[in-house]
Structure formats: C-alpha cells, structure tokens
Design a protein that fits this description.
This protein is mainly alpha-helical. It has a domain at about 20-50. The chain contains three helices and two strands. A two-stranded parallel ribbon has the order 1-2. About 0% of the residues are buried.
Length: about 50
C-alpha cells in the first residue's frame, strides 16, 4: 500500500502509515474481490478493520 514506507520512517512520518485494512477502503485500494476475501480469511496475518 505504501511503496515509499522506508522514506516515511526515515523522515519520522510513521504515523502516516496505515497498518490495517479498513473494509470501507477496499474499493479505493483497488483490491480485487478474490484477494480481499483471502486477506479477510487469513486470520491474524492482516489487520482488518470493519
């Protein structure tokens, strides 16, 4: 989701990095439905917010 995450950390902008996927942002992130279903079913591997 953040290809420039290393730069954000180096610049002290860790707070700008989202560490969970909010279900309301799935379309904004352009996640394919099948991938979203796998992420939701993955258990603790991903942080999902409903």
């Amino acid at each position: 989701m953040y290809p420039d995450w290393v730069e954000k950390i180096q610049n002290g902008k860790e707070s700008e990095i989202e560490t969970a996927i909010n279900s309301s942002k799935v379309s904004e992130l352009e996640l394919p439905e099948k991938l979203w279903n796998v992420i939701r079913a993955s258990g603790p591997w991903f942080n999902n917010e409903e």
